[in-house]
Design goal:
The chain contains seven helices and 18 strands. The chain is α+β, with helices and mostly antiparallel strands and 357 residues long. Helix 3 packs across helix 7.
């Protein structure tokens, strides 16, 4: 299977399946002499791991990361960093009934159509389990970026229910199981998702990632645009069906006067009077906060019977059993942060390589 690597100078490859013995990543392009321990990675894996609330899958995985190479005496050596995360709570028997039946909304049919074989145990390679490897790589990317760049994510919409942006409070994202920056919305979402979960159904979500402290100048015109790389990174996350930067699709509703991010002179460079562009113009960072959003579709594994076909082309119905997220978007926040971190780390190294520090 091709296309398992991401990035240019900062690059990672992931491997493993949902119900295999382990998953992991190989991270290359990391500068030497950066302090790195398993704990630096574990703190972010703990934010993504399953079983943390009743609103996510109850699969119990400790997601303990092991560093197998690329670190000596607590410092990166400049060689590939190999990471291992063992799977410990697989229930492959939950999927035996779908071995010959395609689940609607999943990658079952497309994998089978392409390769002529598929791992039906939890989706194999297409499972969201793979995203733990991305979060691990993102933790290393954060070390390259340094503490001056602050990356944060939040769920801004659950199904049809949106937050009130006037209530935005980053601290609230750590005080509820929804990564929601609006305390009132989070309280309402609890009842919404409880009802969805009990009905055996699922909801989608919209996640917003904000990166503050990115200096102007990162990215490149045309084929190396920072925003196009961000879009590719976020679109590559499981179940993502849409990405926007800044105002995104809403920019089409604005006039030219409204959309223009006007500037005034400041003591330390230009002061922007708005940020409709989401911190990127012409594919290059402006120095403003980079803002990206991505839409995650409803979890395809639901109890309600759906029409489908078998591998032999026979009509069938299927109800997916097992342990699934009623809204997979809730655990996508750390994944989105990680992918943005990886893109920014890559562009930092690319910028340094072309024009210097």
């Amino acid at each position: 299977m091709s296309a398992n690597a991401f990035g240019t100078l900062f690059r990672f490859s992931t491997w493993g399946e949902s119900h295999g013995p382990a998953i992991g990543a190989v991270v290359d392009g990391v500068p030497p002499r950066l302090a790195l321990s398993a704990a630096d990675i574990q703190r972010y894996l703990d934010l993504r791991k399953p079983g943390t609330s009743r609103f996510v899958t109850q699969r119990r995985e400790p997601d303990q990361v092991e560093i197998l190479s690329g670190v000596f005496e607590g410092l990166t050596t400049g060689t590939p960093i190999s990471l291992l995360i063992r799977n410990e709570d697989q229930r492959s028997k939950d999927y035996s009934e779908i071995a010959e039946t395609f689940r609607p909304g999943h990658a079952d049919y497309t994998y089978w159509a392409k390769y002529g074989i598929r791992d039906y145990r939890g989706g194999g390679r297409s499972s969201a389990r793979e995203t733990a490897s991305r979060v691990a790589a993102g933790a290393i990317a954060r070390l390259i970026l340094g503490p001056q760049i602050v990356l944060r994510g939040a769920v801004v919409q659950l199904g049809r229910h949106k937050i009130d942006r006037r209530n935005w409070d980053w601290e609230q994202t750590t005080k509820n199981p929804f990564w929601c920056p609006d305390a009132a919305a989070a309280q309402a979402w609890e009842g919404v998702l409880d009802a969805t979960r009990k009905a055996g159904s699922s909801l989608g979500a919209v996640i917003e990632i904000v990166a503050e402290g990115v200096p102007p100048g990162w990215g490149a015109p045309l084929y190396g645009k920072l925003d196009s790389d961000l879009a590719a990174a976020l679109m590559g996350i499981n179940a993502v069906k849409g990405v926007e930067i800044g105002d995104g699709f809403a920019a089409a509703e604005l006039s030219g006067e409204e959309n223009a991010d006007e500037m005034r002179a400041g003591n330390e460079g230009p002061i922007f009077l708005s940020n409709h562009a989401g911190g990127i113009l012409g594919g290059i960072s402006t120095g403003q906060a980079i803002v990206a959003r991505f839409a995650v579709k409803p979890t395809s594994s639901i109890l309600s019977a759906r029409r489908t076909i078998t591998t032999k082309g026979v009509d069938a119905e299927i109800s997916t059993k097992g342990r699934h997220d009623p809204c997979v978007g809730l655990r996508a926040v750390p994944v989105g942060e990680a992918m943005v971190a990886c893109v920014l780390a890559d562009h930092k190294l690319r910028h340094r390589g072309q024009v210097g520090p």
